[in-house]
Amino acid sequence: MLNSTICESGSSHFNELLTEFYSSGAKSINDGDTSNDRPLHYAVKSHLFDEKDIAMFITMGADLNVTNNEGRTPLHEIARSIYCKSGIAKMLLFHGANPHTTDNNGYTAFHHLATCHAQDKAEQVDIGRLLLLHGADINAPNYISETPLHLAVLFRNLNFKLLRFFATHGARANIPELKLPLALLGNRIRLKEITEILADTSTDVNAHLPATHRTALHLAIENPNCRSIIVRTLLSNGADVNARDLVNSTPLHYAVSRFHYEDDEDDQIRYEKEPVEDGWEKKFSVFNLSNSDYLQINKIKLLLEFHANINAKDNFGQTPLHNAVKNIECSLRVFKILLQNGANVNAVCNVNSTALQYAVQVNWNNEDVILELLNQGADPNIMSGFGMSALHHSVRNPCCDLIVTRALLDKGADVNIADPETKYTPLLAALEYKCKLDHIQLLLERGAFVNTEEYSLSPLSWIVCSRYCELKVVKEILKHMDSIPPNVNAWLFFGVVRNGCSAEVIEELVKAGVNINAKDSENNTPLNLALDEPIAKMDVIRSLLKNGARASIPTGEEEYPWGDAFDEIIQDRFSSRDIDFIRDTLKYAICHTGRGVPFQLFNSDRKLRSYIRVLKELRVYQYQCIAEIESMTKNLLNVSTCLFTFLRLDGLCYSPGQLNRILEIVKYNFYPIYSDLIARKISKELLIEKLITCKVYMIDKFNQQIILNPYCVKFVATHLSNEDLFSCIRAFYVF
């Protein structure tokens, strides 16, 4: 193999090159090494060889058009060499080097010249003149349809003298079937000079990229490093200010949009059409707001100066104002400019959404923009194609502060606006999502309707079915309801069970008079529904039972659902938590049914000894429950009602006489299992009053009586449960 290092070392470089060449086994000066490079290829690439040396090669019969493995001739090599000697190029061309020959990539000598890191820029231009003089095609395309000028404008180490030479000697920047060379605006270096050079040529400034239909003006606007002078140069040279890309976006759409770059064959740049997940504005933004705000505003002013259509719509029906509200980099000044220059503040897109509706949907604080749109006449009552107004979006968007919702209402937003078909009001939108209490309170204060008789449209039913259901929101809605409509009352607790609402919510609904034992068409109660999923609904079942819920025998069945529920728990897991749950609920099952609940033995592969032991303990506990029930049937509160019947009746005890009789019974017949149920059947107000009037005695020899301060007792008692109050009274109760 010929060694170029040896060729370029020593004073007798020509002889050394030939010596090395022939010692490698070559028989002729036109034989190549392993890469098919000939001595002439090495010579033209080296700074040690001059015209006299090349003349000696020619005299010895060197083939001037021979190619190496990459298809390059000596003329290609001198055109791409950093030493780029025009004298050698002149000698090669004069003695027959073909300027039209292409290498394996379809590159001519002109292509190589356009991408050369030449040390001497003037020599590079001289070679260009020599190529033209010998008939080289300055517009020849390579195999991927790139002309030398294409490569020149995209080349990072650009020689502006060479570019000027191309531009003034007939080089064309766009040929119809080729890529648009005005993609030069992707070159971040000396953009102004590139643009001016191309503007001086016959370049069609409105030519567009085949794939995206973007023009040079689109590219200039989207480039964050592109200065206003470039935009002005393009516009002054005939660039269409209202040119449309593939989706009919104009340069003004681009000026207010957010871009991120994607690597593909056409260097396409995509911009977001809709707000997306949290963080998208940071992830995709190529602008630095502090540095780009001035540039952006200047570009917008330039486009408007050249009569850009400020209300042009793209394929989505969106105007530049629509795009601007979705761009976090657009300052308030941008909106003022657009609106002052005639932007239609109430223009609607293909889905009938206005800029205001988009502004209240973005995931950042857009307060200033929203207020500006409202002050400029934005209509808050325009409904989108999805049946939503700006108020709908405001109350459900966590990024919209209360001031936005209040501003919408102050500007005439209808608090009860709804699509006639869906009847989806702003209050329902607020309840469906993150249930911001301050927004809900404001809607209710402004007259949001809560007393609908249709269950599916009742705000109360929406909140208990929402995954964001909170007690404070439930209380707020109940506070504004005149009463709970019968149809809502009948179905509300079924929604509570399905959603798995908290114990506090269940208790609050019971206080409000919601029927916890309502029945559906198949005779199922809410407790039946919960018992269908005993493992998932354990906490709900406990809360329902503590608030008086009962199971029933469904239509077509012969038994209560208790047995199946317990069997499912035992079969599935049977952990200590499950055992506690069964113990807690078993007493309710026996109280409601008046009999025991049968257990079945499943999964024989378990540790049977401990498994059977626990079942035995549960059966013993069941017998104890039954024994207390039987005892309660023998204790009469009056001639017709025993204590057990009292437990099974609906409603609370408000009778002091009945309370005294209950206390007399439990004083001597203590019911450790059912005492909490007995306590919850008595009105809390009655228990507090009884506690205040109880006589309390010190345990000493004088048996001194203590008088309790009734105000202190009331204060403490309000923080105690019925069970705690009942225990205190029973302890103090004296006949």
From TrEMBL:
**Which molecular function term from Gene Ontology is one that the record holds?**
toxin activity
GO BP terms, alphabetized:
exocytosis
Could you give one GO CC term from the UniProt record?
A: host cell presynaptic membrane
InterPro entries, per database record: Ankyrin_rpt, Ankyrin_rpt-contain_sf, Multifunctional_ANK_Repeat
**Compartments, as annotated in UniProt:** Secreted; Target cell membrane
Major place of residence: secreted
ANK repeat feature ranges: 35-69, 70-104, 144-178, 212-246, 316-350, 386-420
- Tell me where on the tree of life, at the top rank, the source sits: Eukaryota
Arranged from A to Z, the UniProt key words for this protein are: ANK repeat, Exocytosis, Membrane, Neurotoxin, Presynaptic neurotoxin, Repeat, Secreted, Target cell membrane, Target membrane, Toxin
Q: Which PANTHER family match?
A: ANKYRIN REPEAT-CONTAINING, PROTEIN HOS4
The name under which this protein is listed is: Ankyrin repeat protein FPV162
In its UniProt entry, the species of origin is given as: Caerostris darwini
* Gene coding for it: FPV162_5
